[in-house]
Amino acid sequence: MSFTTEVKRELIQINTEQLPELAALIRMNGTIQIKNKKFALKVRLYLGDLARKVYSLIKKEFQLEIQIIVRKDHYFDNRHNIYELFLPPQPGLDDFLFQLGFVDENKRIIFKVKEEIVNDRLYQRAYLRGAFLGGGSVNNPNSEYHL
Length: 147
Known about the structure:
It contains 6 helices and 4 strands. By secondary structure, it is an alpha+beta fold. It has a 4-stranded antiparallel sheet with strand order 1-2-4-3.
């Protein structure tokens, strides 16, 4: 297991300020789709623990329907699971996207981070944690330097 995966597994255990974390994670690994003039959302994750956390949080806080697809990826002869969480068009999805800062009250897509997150130190930390979980990497400080 890589050092990055170890760090991510440790960060997944943190359960504070989860909405800003979720917002960053979806911004990094999510795709908002428009189907028949209604929003849908697909989130692609590479760690099972993280997929379970996102699934549980969305179910608990928003009671939204989520479809889970697990795919096998053969990347450089290594087998990895890819977890795709799909939220189809449904009542409540617009509010979910609004609360996370992806759409405004008129259902227009927003391309910037929510002011509430930018102005709160704890939310900033949670947002950075989510961004790292979604697409970050880190080198072991005890290993040899490399480019």
